[in-house]
Design a protein that fits this description.
The longest helix has 26 residues. About 30% of the residues lie in helices and about 20% in strands. The two termini are about 20 Å apart. It has one domain: Glycerol-3-phosphate (1)-acyltransferase. The protein has five helices and seven strands, in the order ββαβαβαβαββα. A seven-stranded mixed β-sheet has the order 1-7-6-2-5-3-4, with helices on both faces.
Length: about 200
C-alpha cells in the first residue's frame, strides 16, 4: 500500500492494543480493505465475498487470515469464523454497508450490530478517504497511483445498550446507534482531512 499510494494514518492509537475489536470501515474504493490491512496497528480479519477467493487469490487471502462469506445466504460458517476471531481476542474488519458504494454509512446492515452485541467487542470507526472523482479515470473506484489516501481511526464505542439483550429490536436499536456514530466519525474525518 505504501509503495502504490501515499497513506496518511490518523488516530491508529485508538485501536485497542489487545483484546477483541471490530473495525467498521466505509467502503467506496476497491482498495479500502487492503489499505486498512496494510496500515492498521494490529492484524485485521475481514469478511470477504466468496467470489474474491478464486485462483491464486484464494490461498493468499486464506494465508493472511481473511474470511470467506457467501452473501446470498445466512452463512453460518462465516459467522462462526468471525465470532471465533473475536473470541480469540483478534480484530474483525467489517464493511457495515455490505458492499462498495458511496462510502457514507447511509444503509447499514445488521451484521455489525450482531457481532458487536454478541461478542461485546468495541467498535472502532474507520474512514478511508481518497480521490476517485477525477474525470477520465479508467477505474473510477480506484484512487490514482501515488495519490494520498487518508485512513482515520475514531474512538472505540460499545454498540449495546448495556442490557445484554440480543433480540431483533435490540439489534435494530444498536444499528441506529452505530450508524449515528459512524456517520459522525466520517463527517469529522472529512473535516480533519479536508476531503
Amino acid at each position: 500500500m505504501y509503495g502504490l499510494w501515499r497513506p496518511r494514518v490518523l488516530g491508529a492509537w485508538r485501536v485497542p492494543a489487545s483484546g477483541p475489536a471490530i473495525l467498521a470501515v466505509n467502503h467506496s474504493h476497491l482498495i479500502d480493505g487492503p489499505m486498512l490491512m496494510g496500515t492498521a496497528p494490529r492484524p485485521v480479519h475481514f469478511l470477504i465475498k466468496q467470489e474474491a477467493f478464486i485462483g491464486p487469490l484464494d490461498p493468499f487471502l486464506r494465508g493472511i487470515g481473511q474470511l470467506k462469506i457467501d452473501r446470498t445466504t445466512a452463512d453460518r460458517a462465516a459467522i462462526g469464523n468471525a465470532l471465533g476471531v473475536l473470541e480469540r481476542g483478534g480484530v474483525l474488519g467489517i464493511f457495515p454497508e455490505g458492499t462498495r458504494g458511496q462510502g457514507d454509512f447511509a444503509a447499514l446492515r445488521s451484521g455489525l450490530a450482531y457481532f458487536a452485541v454478541r461478542s461485546g467487542a468495541p467498535i472502532v470507526p474507520v474512514a478511508v478517504l481518497g480521490s476517485t472523482d477525477r474525470p477520465g479515470r479508467l477505474i473510477r473506484a480506484l484512487p490514482p497511483l501515488r495519490s494520498r489516501i487518508d485512513v482515520v481511526f475514531g474512538d472505540p464505542f460499545e454498540a449495546g445498550d448495556g442490557s445484554g439483550m440480543r433480540t431483533r429490536a435490540a439489534l435494530d436499536a444498536a444499528t441506529v446507534r452505530i450508524q449515528r456514530r459512524l456517520t459522525d466519525h466520517l463527517a469529522d474525518a472529512r473535516r480533519r482531512t479536508a476531503r
